[in-house]
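Researcher: I'd like a candidate sequence for this fold, 339 residues long. If you have to choose between options at a position, lean toward the conservative one.
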């Protein structure tokens, strides 16, 4: 076998991060993933250890390796440092956040046949970080920035993704009825790009109607492309359609071949340190990472182990209505790979 060991940056993250990262590292090794992890700090852990949430060594490691697996990072609400997640996405120009939401056999959920992918613009919109108070906190202003270039590349990414993965429809989600300029420009560019892909059905929907339609009739969605804030919210909604945040994975992809894979969920401070965090979301993100590294055999083995463990009610974790803990579930994933 050719040694294709790839050095990959590992940010364990805050809260439940170290628990689910340890489980994922063990599962990737058992699946035969040829990965050498380079561990670097970020988030609240880095503030304590290095005095900054995003140390230089972390940026250097990702710059060198071009691929990272990242646990969740805590961000203070309303004050304190800016989100490291937003910072990383902007620094490495990771403009495409791809969040698949597909029904997982055996995982209790309201639907049996959800299969959608949300492609979220990751660097612009209301998350551009341009905000300030007016006067003595009497008003606050946050500026949503939508550019033609930023819109075109994310919408094109969604159509290319649809072509590559044999998907048939792209739905552009917006609020152009009210946000006539930032929403209107995104929609205008969407219509232009869609005209270049006559083989793929295209429609657009207003975000509030989309939220309702996703809950009532999620099977009608295939690929959704949308701006930063709407994508953030709708992808948690999509996670809820397939069993919850414990099972929702994602990839942040950008220019220059840089990629950061992470769970959709946050640091889950309410359960951190208890050994009950569901590692599925990070493990499925590692499946996407192995596929990205062209390590398909290991990716398939890992996916097989996860799916078999999820389908076994004895191994069901607490967030999915069972009693299994992180260690028990991880052992089951590893055992099932071999079967
Ligand atoms: P959260 O996703 O951490 O938790 C929401 C709920 O889902 C909690 O009840 C939690 O226990 C549960 N949950 C989440 N992941 C789980 C898992 N793997 N297994 C079992 N249960 C799980 O969202 P919250 O509480 O709003 O955010 C907490 C912190 O995480 C904040 O500082 C926030 O900024 C940060 N965050 C970081 C993200 C990232 O690094 N990508 C994404 C979202 C939030």
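Model: Candidate sequence:
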């Amino acid at each position: 076998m050719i040694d294709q060991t790839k050095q990959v940056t590992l940010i364990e993250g805050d809260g439940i991060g170290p628990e689910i990262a340890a489980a994922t590292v063990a599962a990737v090794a058992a699946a035969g993933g040829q990965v050498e992890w380079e561990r670097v700090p970020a988030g609240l852990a880095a503030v304590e250890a290095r005095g900054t949430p995003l140390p230089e060594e972390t940026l250097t490691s990702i710059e060198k390796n071009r691929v990272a697996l990242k646990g969740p990072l805590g961000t203070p609400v309303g004050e304190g440092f800016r989100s490291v997640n937003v910072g990383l996405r902007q620094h490495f120009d990771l403009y495409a956040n791809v969040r698949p939401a597909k029904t997982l056999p055996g995982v209790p959920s309201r639907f049996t046949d959800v299969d959608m992918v949300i492609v979220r613009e990751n660097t612009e919109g209301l998350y551009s970080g341009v905000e300030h108070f007016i006067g003595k906190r009497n008003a606050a202003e946050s500026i949503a920035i939508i550019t033609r270039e930023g819109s075109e590349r994310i919408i094109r990414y969604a159509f290319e993704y649809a072509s590559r993965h044999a998907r048939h429809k792209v739905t552009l989600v917006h609020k152009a009825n009210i946000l006539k300029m930032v929403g209107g420009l995104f929609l205008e560019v969407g219509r232009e790009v869609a005209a270049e892909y006559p083989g793929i059905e295209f429609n657009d929907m207003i975000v509030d109607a989309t939220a309702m339609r996703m809950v009532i009739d999620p099977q009608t969605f295939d690929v959704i492309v949308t701006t930063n804030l709407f994508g953030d919210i709708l992808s948690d909604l999509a996670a809820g359609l397939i069993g919850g945040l414990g099972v929702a994975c994602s990839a942040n992809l950008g220019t220059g071949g840089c990629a950061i894979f992470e769970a959709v969920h946050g640091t889950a401070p309410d359960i951190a340190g208890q050994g009950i965090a569901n590692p599925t979301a990070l493990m499925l993100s590692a499946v996407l990472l192995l596929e990205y590294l062209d390590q398909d055999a290991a990716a398939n083995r890992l996916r097989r182990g996860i799916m078999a463990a999820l389908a076994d009610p004895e191994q069901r974790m607490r967030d999915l209505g069972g009693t299994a803990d992180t260690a028990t579930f991880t052992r089951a994933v590893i055992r099932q790979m071999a079967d």
